[in-house]
Design a protein that fits this description.
The protein has 13 helices and 12 strands. With about 325 residues, it is α/β, with parallel strands linked by helices.
Length: about 325
């Protein structure tokens, strides 16, 4: 589509159960000046045959499994439109999803727009209203599990956009680079958000751009890879992208958070994946130094501006809710 405003990039792995409804919801959008690019990551269901029969989809077939980040980048490399969107295959969309998501881009400082991602099953609680990132090095989905009405009262600015439904200004991605493929999955969206903020861009929520998400339908949340990648990638993000002054200012927060995380992993019997991920991050020291050097080339803002978008209340955001959940589980067993 020569006059398309955006390319919708859908990474697909065994998503045939969800793709028909998703593509139907795209066909029903109030604004239709976009093209659809599906990147199939070596699916073993009938996804490829079904997608090849669709005239409304530009299909890219990975020759080997690349994971989420690599599959998204395969689509990003082919996009020729001013804006791009990363959209999970296990989603479907409100009719004004696309129209509402493009409106914030009227401000040239905005590089990324987060749809309001709701859980697909009623009562449609919030999955994500954008990501928050803490001084301790942990990230979380803003308003996760809260009623959808809570999004009306939240600040539009967020740290990064959850990849379930995230729009980007293509020129900003050309400047800071695409997703980090070495991350495979988990924290790759937070890492991109960090680079965008260092370059002086903003990431915001578009609360009227509604996406419904079948959470964890494509990638299983309790796998070894999930816990390993999360542990490794979270550590790399903190050590690579936190500006030097802020890193040493908040090092005790980070170490305290790691200690508490390790205790939680012991309780859940996941210490091997956690420690393996942290060891892999330690072995990535050369890569971390290379990322820091690259950051210096793209950074346009002072450390104070970066610190203003980090959340210092990491205890209340990351630790206290888990302690309450653990206490309730213990009480339930008694």
């Amino acid at each position: 589509m020569g006059d398309a405003a955006a390319t919708i990039i859908i990474p697909n792995f065994n998503g045939l159960a969800f793709l028909p409804r998703l593509l139907d919801s795209l066909a029903d959008q109030s604004r239709r000046d976009f093209e659809i690019c599906v990147v199939d990551d070596c699916s073993t269901d009938e996804s490829r045959n079904w997608l090849q029969s669709r005239s409304d989809v530009r299909l890219i077939l990975n020759e080997q499994n690349l994971g989420f980040a690599g599959t998204c980048n395969a689509g990003l490399r082919t996009a020729q439109t001013p804006f791009v969107c990363l959209l999970n295959n296990d989603t479907h969309l409100d009719r004004r999803w696309f129209e509402a998501a493009l409106k914030p881009f009227d401000d040239p400082a905005i590089a990324a727009v987060q749809s309001l991602v709701l859980l697909a099953e009623p009562p449609h609680l919030i999955d994500s209203a954008g990501d928050l990132y803490t001084t301790a090095g942990g990230a979380l989905k803003r308003l996760h599990g809260r009623p959808r009405e809570a999004a009306a009262k939240v600040l539009l600015d967020c740290f990064s956009c959850c990849g379930a439904s995230a729009f980007f200004r293509k020129s900003a991605l050309d400047f800071v680079g695409p997703l980090n493929e070495s991350f495979v999955s988990y924290y790759e969206d937070v890492e991109l958000g960090f680079r965008l903020h260092l370059a002086g861009y903003r990431c915001v929520l578009a609360p009227d751009s509604i996406c419904y998400h079948h959470l964890n339908a494509s990638y299983k949340p309790e796998s070894w890879a999930m816990h390993f990648n999360s542990a490794r990638n979270a550590e790399i993000v903190w050590w690579a992208h936190m500006p030097d002054r802020l890193r040493w200012k908040h090092i005790l927060d980070h170490l305290a958070f790691l200690t508490l995380q390790f205790g939680a992993e012991i309780l859940h019997r996941r210490t091997r994946a956690f420690l393996s991920g942290k060891l892999a991050a330690w072995r990535s020291r050369d890569r971390i130094r290379a990322i820091r050097a690259a950051d210096k080339a793209l950074t346009r803002v002072p450390d104070e501006q970066i610190e203003s978008i980090l959340r210092a209340d990491w205890w209340n955001l990351l630790v206290r809710p888990r302690l309450i959940k653990l206490w309730n589980e213990v009480r339930g067993r008694c």
